[in-house]
Amino acid sequence: MASQQGNVAAKLAADYSVIKNKNKKKYLHRLRPVILGSLLPIILIVVWEIFSKSGFVPAHQLPAPSTILGTIKEMFVDGTLWQHVGITTYRVFIGFVLGSVIAIILGSFVGLNTFAEHMFDPLIQAFRSIPSLAWVPLFILWMGIGEPSKVTMIAVGVFFPVYLNIVSGISGVDKKLIEVGKMYRLNTFELITRVIFPAALPSILVGLRSGLGLGWMFVVAAELMGASEGLGYLLVLGQNTLAPETILASIILFATIGKLSDWVLKEVETRSLHWQR
Amino acid sequence: MVLQLEKVSRTFAGKTVVKDISLSIKRGEIVGILGTSGCGKSTLLRAVSGIDLDYDGKISINNVSDKKIHDTTGFIFQEPRLFPWQTVLENVTFGLKVSKSEAKKLGKSYLQDVGLADSERLYPSQLSGGMAQRVAIARALATSPEVLLLDEPFSALDAFTKMQLQDLLLDIWQAHQTTMVLVTHDIDEALYLCDRVIILRGQPGEISDVYTIEKQRPRERGDKYLAQLKSEILEDLDLTRQSHS
């Protein structure tokens, strides 16, 4: 009896360890691409560190990664990090909201209504062919170098990808699904809210994500043209004070918050499009 | 007469597709519209449904002949046409204009009828073709239509699923005595399901023949009488005959 119980216990323990091993294997399996993907960057950083520290590459041209991290840490300690990151994020956020709200409204009209399409679309397309950065001098002339011109700049950058994706998303809605809605006698408003917008949502989200990407691009341009704070200002500051570590620190910070904000939108996307497998 | 067509024609950019179709359908009748492709049978059904309102002639449902989509008709398309962002249950209750809890109850009971009671939380992308078409059938039934219009509803399915769904359709008819108009190019399907089969022929499509099938349902699929009718219909549909007439 006792030995039987012992057997059972041993068997349970064996089962448990099998499960544990399986989980471990699964975990390792999931980790594999992460390890493989980070291999090259780590090697590059180490080589870079060695080259800079040994003087093979002049430190005043390309400072070592540890020096750049030190710069970021310094900014963190004296509080200027949040100031610069904060104001840049704020500008992108306001510009992004402004640009995408206008794009959603205009794009919806143009996508839903042929009259609006014929009226607005040619003009918008004409504006699209102007490289957006060409507006910079005009905006400065009109609004000065303060916040309004920067935010407007970013909004212009965000507007076009959002607008184009909404128009193509709405006009690409399957006519067969619209027919189903009509068969159930939905009125125009219900048809828009219950069929057309949900069907166009994937395309709208693609537009918002690429709009956000352009927003980050345009904030650099906006802050380069004259700012007293922000990550773009750090770029200019680094150039003027011959401090490449400041420039590189700013670039790394741009990459980090850019990626972070894109991840937020991607989360929104996976949550609202969970039906797309 | 629940459904009446008087001299219905439909012309697209000067080309007449169906011409002078007159037809009356009794309550509870299953009528098949059979024809080769391009004879305008789907066009005719779209006019009856009210999706397409640019037809000539008069179509009345329950003696109402307004040119609009009637709330007493349901439509089952060739493809399921489910909304991919909604679950199976949400798709079934899509057209219901009752309270949410009531819609849910109704939707579940219709899903039970089509044999998908435990799939209500799935999304269309997770369904097989046959399951998706079952959901589409449940959706069309949920509004309890008096007239059910079916546009080649099983033509995209494999032979076995097709037979299952044909039997499902007969079960529904047994339960609700719904009037059905079934457009198909499958002679066996028409003979298995319908009380009356209308043969459309030619371009523009016109009624060339009407067969009444007096056999009780459910019918044997390999029935001799039906086989006899099939060969008659095949002869009737023979495309080579067109050159003589």
Please give a quick description of this structure.
By secondary structure, chain A is mostly helical.
| Alpha-carbon distance between the two ends of chain A | 53 Å
Total strand segments of chain A: 0
Q: What is the CATH domain class of the largest domain in chain A?
A: Mainly Alpha
The overall pLDDT of chain A, averaged over residues, is: 89
CATH architecture of the largest domain in chain A: Orthogonal Bundle
Envelope shape of chain B: globular
Write down the Rg of chain A: 27 Å
Structural class of chain A: mainly alpha
Task: Give a count of the beta strands of chain B, DSSP E runs of length 2 or more.
Answer: 9
Q: Return residue spans of chain B where pLDDT drops below 50 for at least 5 consecutive residues.
A: none
Strand % of chain A is: under 5%
Low-confidence runs of chain A (pLDDT<50, min 5 residues)? none
CATH homologous superfamily placement of the largest domain in chain A:
MetI-like
Range of strand content of chain B: 15-25%
Structural commentary:
The complex is a heterodimer of chains A (277) and B (245). Chain A is mainly alpha-helical and 277 residues long. Chain A has helices at 2-53, 65-78, 80-112, 114-128, 136-143, 147-171, 175-183, 188-224, 231-240, 244-272. Chain A has ten helices and no strands. In chain A, helix 6 packs antiparallel against helix 8. The radius of gyration of chain A is 27 Å and the shape is flat. The mean pLDDT of chain A is 89. Chain B contains seven helices and nine strands; from the N terminus they run βββαββαααβαβαββα. The longest helix of chain B is centred in the C-terminal third of the chain and has 18 residues, at 159-176.
